[in-house]
Amino acid sequence: MYVAVTRARRSVTILASEARPSVFVEELIKEPEFGVVVPPEAQKHTHTCPACDGRLLHMAGKDGRDWYRCEHVKLCGSRMPACPACGVGLPVRSRASDDLICGDCGEPQPACPSCDAGWLVERRGRYGAFLGCVRFPDCDGKAKLKKSA
User: Fold this and answer.
1) What is the tens place of the pLDDT at every residue in 51-69?
2) Are residues 18 and 91 in the same domain?
């Protein structure tokens, strides 16, 4: 990297992980004298993968339902659906309550009791309806469905 940076005539393009940039890249970005330009789309951090701490990338589904997958798809394979209310955002844990709040629409989702990133959705099994984590089969968090009066 040193040779590339010191021998370049006009400019150097450095590709680095947004989730885990090296200390050299962080140093170059922090010092204004180096004149590093970071593209605006790289500056907006998306969401962190619950399995490997990589980035979750937004994907448009063919059936109209959006979802998120890990940038390390070959190694990690983690994926999550988008918010059930707006279909675009990704609910994240709120500091104020135990629920997860969607970053786009603000709709709360009940948090999974087994993992930090998932939320509970209604599912059907052989014993009837229950609440299950959206990260199934990576997470097997469950809760009983409250009976409506």
Assistant:
1) 888 888 888 878 777 888 8
2) no
Residues 6+ apart with CB under 8 A from 93: 100, 111, 116, 117
* Exposed e or buried b per residue across 108-142, where buried means at least 16 C-beta atoms within 10 angstroms of its C-beta: ebebbeebebbbbeeeeeeeeeebbbbbeebbebb
pTM of the model: 0.64
Let me know if residue 149 belongs to a domain: no
The tally of domains found in the chain comes to 2
Edge to edge, what strands does the sheet with 128-133 contain?
Answer: 120-125, 128-133, 142-143
The HSE-up count of residue 98 (CA atoms within 13 Å, CB side) is 7
Positions of the chain with pLDDT under 50: none
Query: Does residue 11 sit in the same domain as residue 73?
Result: no
- Asked if residue 120 and residue 90 are part of one domain, the reply reads yes
Residue-range definition of the domain harbouring residue 59: 47-143
pLDDT at 117: 87
The DSSP secondary-structure symbol of 28 reads H
Q: How far apart, in whole angstroms, are the C-alpha atoms of residue 19 and residue 40? A: 15
Identify any residues that bridge with 93 across adjacent strands, giving them in sequence order. Answer: 100
Would you state the structure tokens that stand for residue 37, as one six-digit string?
Answer: 């330009």
Same domain, 37 and 68: no
